[in-house]
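Hi L., both proteins are below.
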Amino acid sequence: MSLIPGFYGRRSNSVFDPFSLDVWDPFEAFNAPFLRDLGPSRDFARDASAVANTQVDWKETPEAHIFKADLPGLKKEEVKIQVEDNNILQISGERGKEQEHKDDKWHRIERSHGKFLRRFRLPENVKVEEVKAAMENGVLTVTVPKQSPPQPQVRSIEISG
């Protein structure tokens, strides 16, 4: 066996060869035909990962709640922002699948595709009618302004008598 794989000999596909190109898939057994109907499909798992992989930061400033979502490769027309029941912020959209041609040979598919959805329960002190959103360089920023805290009212009371 050569110390430099593929240089003097043929590339081995053995599990015991540390230089093998094959990668062990611990979930390969779950793809057996008799198990396919028992669990979620790979498409479902890929769609679920698209939802889970939509990363969002939420910070609160004295003036607003600010949400930032990484949505690389999406246009603003492909993203939908809604406020439901005056307290649920919903960010959704769909990341399309790469166009496949019959002559293409894929080596790796890691980018997620499919629909994504994130929901956040907003606090009571927000102005949902003034929500603003902007998309720049694949980062969606949603700003939800806060209501100004109620000012304490001072009332003079006259002393009778």
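That was the first. Here is the second:
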Amino acid sequence: AVQASPRHSVILLLFACPHLSLAVYSPPDRPPAPVNVSVMHLRADSATISWEVPEGDIIIGFSISQQRQDGQMQRFIREVNTTSRSCVLWDLEEDTNYIIQVQSIGLYGESQASKKVHFHTLKKSDRFPSNSSNQDDPTVQGLDKSRHLQTGEMIIIVVVLVMWAAVIALFCRQYDIIKDNDSSNNKEKAKPSSERSTPEHHSGGLLRSKFHPSVPSINIIEV
């Protein structure tokens, strides 16, 4: 019998179990974890999360784990088919501590979670810090655009209401003018008839006074 060396045993094992060899020698496909996770544009009820992804890997999305520091509430945000490296967290509670972690989503799975990042939301009474860099943030620009749209819609609604009020007032004024004209015309038509009836009554009265039945009438005929 020929004794096989350890090297020959490995080769025989690879040929006998090709699936096992594939599993042993397949390279890892999971992307690396995001780095430089930061929180900016803090508000009382929102915050913007940004991160970076190492180059050389195909990233098709991200996943964010959001949790209150006291552990009472946890939320997961997952988005695919995007190349965005930022996300806005909404519906946060004011004056509250949060913990977030970000994962990259690749073609064959998700990466390890990034390092934990802690942040604290503001109070509603706090004023937002004026920062010129906020104007370059797409999130802030989107909020500004939505505010401008809301202001424009309110202006349009007010203008339409004013126009309707003006139309109604003009209609009421025209209706009053037409009503006054009709009443004056009716008075003018009724005035001549009353004037004509008075002499007839008066003359009739005179005739009745001349030919009153109580007064005797004498006719004298001379031959």
